[in-house]
Please model this.
Amino acid sequence: MYAVNYHRASSVADAAKRGGGDAKYLSGGMTLLPAMKTRLAAPSDLVDLSRLEELRGVRISGRTVTIGAATTHYEVSTDAGLKSAFPLLCRFASLIGDPAVRYKGTIGGSIANNDPAADYPAALVALGATVVTDKREIAAEDFFTGLFETALDDGEIVTAVRFDIPEKAGWEKFRNPASRYAIVGVFVAKKGDGVRVAVTGAGDDGVFRSKEIEAALAKGLDQKALDGISVPSDGLMGDIHASPEYRANLIAVMAKRAVAQAAG
Model:
């Protein structure tokens, strides 16, 4: 590590004043701190958002869910209101990483860093969610712009995410046995405007929607509609864990499991 100035923000407004330039916002630190250790990131200042109560909590109004950016994965997984209204998201959050990651990692940090193996980008894109910042609102599909890249401007702070609970939804991922992060994860959501399918852990450019699977499910959530589905390997990642071709096959397999879960 190296010398860095640490600031504990007292409010979102205070954090905004300290941000920008070479400063980075710190929430759970699950992506940022390892990047700093390997010198992939070298901020001059860290502005800690993790203790801001205005950024914490789950709020449900009708069928609309709003989750504060500093809400941890553990808090999402155990929220009583969410367990009643949308239990799939509680299960989803309970499968992120390991207990240490779930107790410290936050939804805002997860999406702001846009790690290609992160789970939340797939959920937000499939749900047609909105990312709320201290300056504006951004559709999730427009928010994630590439590997570790987002539409956030310098100094802009994610304050919450908002989405409507879908009619049906399913989530399955093939986990790295060590980290529990997604080698491939597929989130399927059925809403009034049709079925949306988002994939994480596989794309060279991060999270993406699978047009092939969405087309096959256009008439509804029928697992049989995915029999023989072929997902192209072009644009998929290849690494020590899985080749692009293997990931393409995993996308089809995880999608079938997610559809079965949603339909059931």
